Amino acid sequence: MELKKTAVAGTMESSDIMVTVEPRESGGIVLELTSSVMKQYGRRIERVIRETAAELGVEHALICAVDKGALDCTVRARVSAAIFRAAERENITWEVGK
Amino acid sequence: MRRIEYGYELCAGRPFRGQAQAELRAFLAEAELTYDPGIGYSVVIRDEAGRIAAAASLDRDTVKCAAVRPDLQGSGLMAQLITCLRQEAVSRGIRSLFLYTKPRNRRQFAELGFYEVAGTEEVLLMEDRRGGFAAWAAGIQDIRACGTVGCLAANCNPMTLGHRHLIEQAAARCDTLYLLVVSEDRSAVPAAHRRRIVEQAAGDLANVIVAETGRYLISSASFPDYFLKERAEAVWCGLDIAVFCRLARILGISRRFVGTEPLCPVTAAYNRAMAAALPQAGVELVELARLEQNGVPISATAVRKLIADGRWQEIKSLVPEAAYDYFSEEENRRLFLQRYQALTVSDQIVAQETGGR
């Protein structure tokens, strides 16, 4: 999916994650993650974010995420929403979450 | 306006005016903060009684005046405000944010995704991109740099023979000179044009590397007062110098050149502050005498006035050929006049608003 602009999704409230996606020309997916549960779940959150971006076909982007203890399904939903907004995709076919 | 938990209410102003702004000012005063006239967007959270519980504001790409009432700290109100400011910034096409705060709040904002750029004892500048500063510095760094590395920063609005003289003198006093042209686009000559003239008029000096100050140095983020001209509080001079020291470490800069400043009080104060602070960071400050013509220093202010008064031919003896050629184009003069007048008007507004503080 081609990203056209910078977009955000989510909030910084407890149990949520705020995701900012910025288009990049090259350099793959650069992830800047801040998490209140970094030590315990940092790697797992990073994996979920990278998987979601890959599933949506995003090759290059700067993804900044501020996590406040979001569950995997929330992380997935927020990353997807930010990517769809960044790609200016209006008719989104939401699939059943994994 | 939307309701949030416990009967609290969140409202936004673009910016607040009248009574709402007066309430915000009073709230900030209690937190030892001053409402900034550059603010374009504010969000406040009010408690059930309608009193302000927390507030934060946006001045272009910079979060300012962020505070939570002491009895409500730690309840997540700031996270809600920053969330709103981020959403607003993105909707305005602003990609990343800066933030000012007091050093004691470092951890709180780190948890909201902000990383330290530089700081002094009084103020901390943070950004919401971990690699922001490093990427900027890497963009300036030039592999040709060697030996004693110097740095000269100038607005060059527009470039004069006085600037050319300073650049020559500085370049002769080091092996490599980083010439940083101010990027902030708040001057009568557009930033890209200022830089292009400098590149043309200094291109013959082999050891000069022309780059830009970007969003970090002498920018509205690091040094807001520079663009207001009327005042230069020591706190902002200190912050800009702290940012420069971080850049100097990365680029190996050991000399910073400045012109003596007989006229502009802001630049004079900045030079004094650098003379005190730079040696501690291992950087020598070298003050260079300004080039004079008929007993007065050549000044870009005087050049701007001549162009504004329609006497642009008279700048010929004051500016390098590249600048004269630039203003020979009618289109460039028209653009200059538009921006010159707009800036004069907005400066007066700012002066009025800051005058009462």
What does this structure look like?
- The complex is a heterodimer of chains A (98) and B (357).
- Chain A is α+β, with helices and mostly antiparallel strands.
- Chain A has a single domain (7-86), classed as Ribosomal Protein S5, domain 2 (2-Layer Sandwich).
- Chain A is built from 2 helices and 4 strands; from the N terminus they run E-E-E-H-E-H.
- In chain A, strands 1-2-4-3 form a 4-stranded mixed beta sheet.
- Chain B has 11 helices and 15 strands.
- Chain B is of the alpha/beta class.
- Chain B folds into 2 domains: 2-97, Aminopeptidase (3-Layer(aba) Sandwich); 138-355, Rossmann fold (3-Layer(aba) Sandwich).
- The model of chain B is unreliable at 351-357 (pLDDT under 50).
- Chain B has helices at residues 18-30, 77-91, 106-110, 132-140, 161-172, 191-201, 234-251, 265-277, 300-308, 321-328, 330-355; strands at residues 2-3, 9-13, 41-46, 52-59, 62-68, 98-101, 115-119, 124-127, 149-154, 176-181, 208-212, 253-259, 284-288, 292-293, 296-297.
- In chain B, helix 6 (191-201) crosses helix 10 (321-328) and helix 7 (234-251) packs across helix 8.
- The two termini of chain B are 30 Å apart.
Question: How many distinct domains of chain B?
Answer: 2
Strand tally of chain B is 15
Strand order of the largest sheet of chain B: 1-2-3-4-5-6-8-7
Q: Fraction of residues of chain A in helices?
A: 25-40%
SSE pattern of chain A, N- to C-terminal: EEEHEH
**Arithmetic mean pLDDT of chain B:** 89
